[in-house]
Design brief:
Layout: E1 2-10, E2 15-25, E3 28-39, H1 41-58, E4 63-68, H2 71-79, H3 85-98, E5 103-108, H4 115-145
Parallel strand pairs: 1-4, 4-5
Antiparallel strand pairs: 1-2, 2-3
Amino acid sequence: MVEVLIDAASKGNPGPSGGGIVIKGNGYFEEFSFPLGEMGNHEAEFFVFVKALEICLEKGFRSAYFRTDSKIVADSVEKQYVKNAEFKRYLEKASELIEEFDLFFIKWVPERQNRQADRLAKAAIHKNSVRSKNRALKKMDCNERNFGQKNGPYHL
């Protein structure tokens, strides 16, 4: 069984957001830190949760113990219900992915027990601003040359 720590951070709500994932266990250790673009904090938390599920399955892990400091994510998964319709698509996708696991647990933990993932999520916010600036420069350059390229939001 692998242990998966997840967290998201937003600078503003909504604002530039980042995600952090730590997967460890069975001699395996890997960290992920990625920018999410403009999102509210709760949406970012759900996005990171789904992404972590996808990564685990891609790597062949079928038994996982998730830890998050997001009560809304932990409670929504446990109850299979979310009030906010905006998050429903994330919960539905997560539920589909969880079905592919042989064993799955999720637990809410205090922030102090989730510092590794928190550090990665906060670092990713800064990657966001660098990538946003680079995209803006690229978009300007493309428009000046009339390439007609679309530079939409950053997706994983």
